[in-house]
Amino acid sequence: PSSLPASVLDLAPVVPVVVIEDASDAVPLARALVAGGLPAIEVTLRTPAALEAIRGIAREVPEAVVGAGTVIRPGQVAEAVAAGSRFLVSPGWTDVLLEAMRASGVPFLPGVSTASEVVALLERGVREMKFFPAQAAGGAAYLKSLSGPLPQARFCPTGGIGATSAPDYLALPNVSCVGGSWMLPQDAVAARDWDRVEALAREAAALSAGGTC
Ligand code: 3PG
Question: CATH classification of 8-205, choosing from 2.40.10.10, 3.20.20.70, 1.10.3720.10, 3.40.50.2300?
């Protein structure tokens, strides 16, 4: 695989969050996302097919930058990296998990949803985080409020974000990208309607047009 990204947040303004039930869907799904302009793809480690999906994308879709999401145990870190993950995302963090992610050498995003968690990560030298669950935890207004006292922290909000709410986040100074699954409707994936996924990905990629990431 090609070189590692320096930062997860600078990969792309919109990061699709993918739940793969059938590993054979991974490559065509990733190709549709890349064709629509979304090359950074987070495959969640929530299904038995996830690692095989990451392997397939890493091997067969060189234009994609595939990462692992829902990394919640230290033991998942090495598995995810061995499968070809070029970044790691977690909905939360502990010191043990943080050390495993750090030791992997791969860029990572631990998840936070409170000011105290942000302060704790800053204490540990981590400035880039996932804000999860973004909509339920307070949305763009909440993240905007954090930018006053904690301007050092940069976020990728994820969780309940859609095409309508994504621009509110992308307009914030402490947000570089947003994550979400809205470009992957369950019925489209079930029907293997990759043209529809590509069209939705193209719309999502256009949300950030004019912005930098
Ligand atoms: C997740 O980790 O589940 C992501 O936050 C995806 O969120 P969404 O499916 O609500 O977009």
Answer: 3.20.20.70
